[in-house]
Amino acid sequence: MPSSSLRPQRPPVTPIGTLADAIGAIAGGGDGRSDVAVTGIELRAQDVRPGDLFAALPGARAHGARFAGDAVSRGAVAVLTDPEGADILADLATDVVVLVHPRPRSVLGSVSATVYGDPSASMTVVGITGTSGKTTTSYLVEAALRAGGRTPGLIGTVETRIGTDPVPSALTTPEAPHLHAMFAAMLEQGCDTVVMEVSSHALSLGRVDGTHFAVGAFTNLSQDHLDFHHTFEDYFAAKARLFAAESAVHAAESVVCVDDEWGRRMADIAGGAGPVTTVSADGSRDDTAVVARNWQARADGTQTFDAVIGDRVVRAQLRLPGRYNVANALVATAVAARVGIDPQVAADAMSTVDVPGRMQRVDRGQPFLAVVDYAHKPAALEVALDTLRRQSTGRVAVVVGAGGDRDAEKRPVMGAVSAAAADLVVVTDDNPRSEDPASIRAAILEGATSVPPADRAQVVEVSPRADAVTYAVRWARPGDVVLVAGKGHEVGQKVGDVVHPFDDREALALAIDGLATVGPSIDELGEDRTS
Ligand SMILES: CC(=O)N[C@H]1[C@@H](OP(=O)(O)OP(=O)(O)OC[C@H]2O[C@@H](n3ccc(=O)[nH]c3=O)[C@H](O)[C@@H]2O)O[C@H](CO)[C@@H](O)[C@@H]1O[C@H](C)C(=O)N[C@@H](C)C(=O)N[C@H](CCC(=O)O)C(=O)O
Ligand SMILES: Nc1ncnc2c1ncn2[C@@H]1O[C@H](COP(=O)(O)OP(=O)(O)OP(=O)(O)O)[C@@H](O)[C@H]1O
């Protein structure tokens, strides 16, 4: 998930709609001042600028109408809310237009699309969903689109690219008002295509309402976000909104990876809405349109395979290590083909892609593979370690921590997963936030040392994180793998309320470069916890 310290950013673009258009989209009433131009739409009162429409939604923590006074004092010309919000607003001495809808979130997408001139209708929008692989697949598709002569915009967890300048993202999928503003800005800057990650939260909360998806892609589904969706079926149903004919946001065409049972169900659902390309990377299914053959992984982290697309055989190479990235690349190739890009052009473009913090290699000429990956949950860690183990014949080290003020139950599990799968586990700090870093490390160590000694990696405790990275690098021999897990693309470490600059990729590069000089021995850096 993106850092919550980031504030959503509305791109510099002027909507073309008026309040009358907004009211038309809501199908509600006005009070005669509806020719007023709307300068933007905001959900957070503190972000309102003069002339904006403030959407005061009921929330899990508060009712947005409680902040309407602030929004009005900042220049909001209208407030969209529900009947409860209207009651709250009745106490507020204001003469702004109040638009009342029983479920205001359900109209926010169409209102936003309307006031920004429905920009997504004028571009080819590709939406990528699934538990894992959204970010990676988006970057692969973006590279393929560029190579195919398209001008794509990108919206996702790490960053949003409107034109060329990347802006760090606050959410994986922005709320509808910002999303349509981004589309409008992309169109204004010459984009003809958009690649975006579509989270299950976004599909549940109507954030992508009003978006015209040309292609929807599904990567996979595994347990996640049950705090929000409660059941796996509910989670699946949220994802299915991108594909099901009865959903207002279903894509015109789909690409579905059918390597898991959920993908097979999704392909059936998508088939009711439009053409579907099925993809299989694990070799277990032959009845799919796109498969991988002749997979080979190299110790330097690269991998090659043939992508068989109907009667075409495309030779593909990836810089990204990890067998599951073959699945991501196949999905991306099939998406590119649906957009009209030659599969070989797409595959060639993907061969040079690095994805920020996702199986991202750090190459400083060292004779071992060094990788930064965002895996910050037990299942992701297990998959990442498994795939790296299969990539190499050498030993595997993992540098692992866990965030403070977040799910504490995962800490021992991450320790156990690491100790069972790696040869060296360096337990260190992630973002401790308000918690004591030593007690987070202790919980991970408890899990790591619960693995029977015969099956257990060497386990050491090293803090701070930079020293932990150095420890793993000094331990590595030619042919080994060092995985620095958990923080991926993040460029800060949150300790207390302060975010200190920290980038795993830089830390790895520094540690590798430092191999040439005499530094502390690994015995001086860490404390062995194996026994
Ligand atoms: C669970 C969830 O998605 N919640 C979203 C929901 O929050 P909420 O219902 O709790 O809202 P609330 O905090 O009670 O506030 C109610 C209203 O008052 C407004 N308000 C609130 C406080 C204030 O000071 N001023 C103000 O104006 C809020 O903007 C809101 O409109 O509505 C808010 C906007 O109205 C969203 O910003 C908020 O997303 C929060 C920030 C969030 O962190 N969401 C995450 C879980 C999320 O969506 N993640 C997915 C990816 C997940 C993944 O794959 O890892 C994503 O797409 O990013
Ligand atoms: N197809 C896949 N199957 C399993 N794991 C994957 C797959 N693709 C990527 N991963 C792993 O999942 C984690 C997240 O990858 P990525 O960011 O591409 O996915 P995501 O769906 O955007 O997830 P997130 O919202 O957590 O960023 C990383 O640890 C990555 O190595």
UniProtKB/TrEMBL annotation:
The keyword Cytoplasm applies. UDP-N-acetyl-alpha-D-muramoyl-L-alanyl-D-glutamate binds at L43, T172, T173, S199, R207. Residues 357-488 form the Mur ligase C-terminal domain. Pfam families: Mur_ligase, Mur_ligase_C, Mur_ligase_M. SUPFAM superfamilies: MurD-like peptide ligases, catalytic domain, MurD-like peptide ligases, peptide-binding domain, MurE/MurF N-terminal domain. Its main location: cytoplasm. ATP binds at G130, T131, S132, G133, K134, T135, T136. It comes from the Bacteria. Carboxylation is probably crucial for Mg(2+) binding and, consequently, for the gamma-phosphate positioning of ATP. Its cofactor is Mg(2+). It is an enzyme of class 6 (ligase). Residues 128-336 form the Mur ligase central domain. Residues 38-113 form the Mur ligase N-terminal catalytic domain. Its EC number is 6.3.2.13. The modification N6-carboxylysine is found at K239. One of its GO terms (molecular function) is UDP-N-acetylmuramoylalanyl-D-glutamate-2,6-diaminopimelate ligase activity. Belongs to the MurCDEF family. MurE subfamily. Catalyzes the addition of meso-diaminopimelic acid to the nucleotide precursor UDP-N-acetylmuramoyl-L-alanyl-D-glutamate (UMAG) in the biosynthesis of bacterial cell-wall peptidoglycan. NCBIfam families: murE (TIGR01085), PRK00139.1-2 (NF001124), PRK00139.1-4 (NF001126). PANTHER family: MUR LIGASE FAMILY MEMBER, UDP-N-ACETYLMURAMOYL-L-ALANYL-D-GLUTAMATE--2,6-DIAMINOPIMELATE LIGASE MURE HOMOLOG, CHLOROPLASTIC. This is UDP-N-acetylmuramoyl-L-alanyl-D-glutamate--2,6-diaminopimelate ligase. It comes from Rhodococcoides corynebacterioides. The lineage of its organism: Bacteria, Bacillati, Actinomycetota, Actinomycetes, Mycobacteriales.
